[in-house]
Amino acid sequence: MTMNTQGRPTAPGEPETSFRPKTFTGNRGLDMEEPLIFEIGRTDTTGVDLDEPAEFAPELGAHARSAPIGLPGLAEPEAMRHYVRLSRNNYAIDSGLYPLGSCTMKHNPRLNEKMARLPGFGDIHPLQPLSTVRGAVELLAELGDWLMELTGTAAIALSPKAGAHGELCGMMAIKAAHTAAGRDPKIVLVPDSAHGTNPATAALLGYRVVAVDARDDGTVDVAAVRAAIAAHAGDVAAIMLTNPNTCGLFERDIVAIAEAIHATDAYFYCDGANFNAIVGKARPGDLGIDAMHINLHKTFSTPHGGGGPGSGPVVLSQRLAPFSPLPFVRKTADGPVLVETEAGLEPGERPFGRMTAFHGQMGMFVRALAYMLSHGADGLKQASEDAVLNANYVRVGLQDLMSLPFGERPCMHEVLFDDTFLKDTGVTTLDFAKAMIDEGYHPMTMYFPLVVHGAMLIEPTESESRAALDLFVATLRDLVMSAKRGETERFTGAPYLAPRRRLDETRAARAPVLTWTPPAPAEVSPQAVE
């Protein structure tokens, strides 16, 4: 028996024709077109049987609904298909390399997910009696011990829900410490390369932000810090500095900066967004910091997509330890206890209040500790080394074609390029990013940090293999050479192959359409009926 050679060719390759049919469904083969749920569901039906509620007295007053809620109903298979099809349009770390700089979109091990779903962790409620959640409290204590050991600090607040929330927590502890000492400084120093949340957090607490210029090499000059302190003598509350910084560089003068700050009774807040580069290699507390948030969703592999769920524990120095917010874990001879109210405080404990209703993101705590225990101290150190190695591998693979604003010096866990290499090509930084989508990659962080024109910040993380990095580097090299050859059409209309084409981003930001309006019924002409 011989194979049928008369059928349609199944081998991969270019199609024999450029014909692209316009399909009736809007689908393109297995690339399924998926309308909004309001377009396919009916408001008068649902796939779930709901009993009529018993008589009750509403307590919402003027806030009660006055009209039907209008949610569309779908049969269970339809609902499942809808969300599965939507998920296929979402780029994720499980589908490809995610090169976002300063975001550490690393692999989330499935072991962590299994641990977070254990009944003793996944099914507990924050209002349960503490006597019924001893194991969960012990986990909080162990996670806190790991984080304090890795950072060289004396206390920890686990409750903040994300990085910016953690920044607020650390700066509130600093403000409480100044108040307790009878001081009321008004100035916070922030390097001009900082994350935008740093000055926003300081301003939210009533501080005036004074920018500190970076040196030509992208790092903060201790002389500039001393000059700012002298210019505002006695009025500096703190400095907020990221290390490694947002340019992907280690602040080599961090110890001298800390000493200058502490000499004026001010405090050193370190933005921990880039802790992923130095875990197991350097302890921020040993370098002089007083407070630092730790993004568990960046450094310790808890999920990061879709805006969270984040978790931003804050470690505190001995000077700030008394001001850690409620709730916090206290070690006792009988094991750890969770101190939830001021009634449980001991002498010397002066929390500034509380950041959130309960203890924080329990599921993220479980995932982070599972990651730490599975790696061990040596594994966490290697993860940092591999993150730095991978970023430098990308840097070396592209530095002959793409431009490095601070020279061909080694970087930390992320490498920063600017758009100088696109000069006179007719291709913009945004065009370049959109063309990456056609190649199957989420673009790197664009236009940030602001201190570099046309910034392209790439962080491959330690999760990626050499083969994955080689393909990524080769793809970017091909795009760069295409731009230099004048093939602008490849860029100016990109993305061509995504489910949706390029948006008018300015118009979308200034005039967003936030509600869906049903289209008017189509009119059928008498001629069409005949």
UniProtKB/TrEMBL annotation:
Q: Which organism is it from?
A: Polymorphum gilvum (strain LMG 25793 / CGMCC 1.9160 / SL003B-26A1)
Q: Where is the Aminotransferase class V domain?
A: 177-305
- SUPFAM superfamilies in alphabetical order: PLP-dependent transferases
UniProt keyword annotation of Oxidoreductase present: yes
Q: What function is annotated for this protein? A: The glycine cleavage system catalyzes the degradation of glycine. The P protein binds the alpha-amino group of glycine through its pyridoxal phosphate cofactor; CO(2) is released and the remaining methylamine moiety is then transferred to the lipoamide cofactor of the H protein.
Report residue spans for region: Disordered: 1-34, 510-530
The protein's Enzyme Commission number = 1.4.4.2
Report the protein name in the record.
Answer: glycine dehydrogenase (aminomethyl-transferring)
Q: Which reaction does it catalyse?
A: N(6)-[(R)-lipoyl]-L-lysyl-[glycine-cleavage complex H protein] + glycine + H(+) = N(6)-[(R)-S(8)-aminomethyldihydrolipoyl]-L-lysyl-[glycine-cleavage complex H protein] + CO2
Could you list this entry's UniProt keywords, alphabetically sorted: Oxidoreductase, Pyridoxal phosphate
Q: Where is the Glycine dehydrogenase C-terminal domain?
A: 383-480
Gene Ontology CC annotation, any one: glycine cleavage complex
Mind telling me which InterPro entries this protein's record contains?
Aminotrans_V_dom (IPR000192), GDC-P_C (IPR049316), GDC_P (IPR020581), PyrdxlP-dep_Trfase (IPR015424), PyrdxlP-dep_Trfase_major (IPR015421), PyrdxlP-dep_Trfase_small (IPR015422)
Task: Enumerate the Gene Ontology biological process terms.
Answer: glycine decarboxylation via glycine cleavage system
- Return one GO MF term: glycine dehydrogenase (decarboxylating) activity
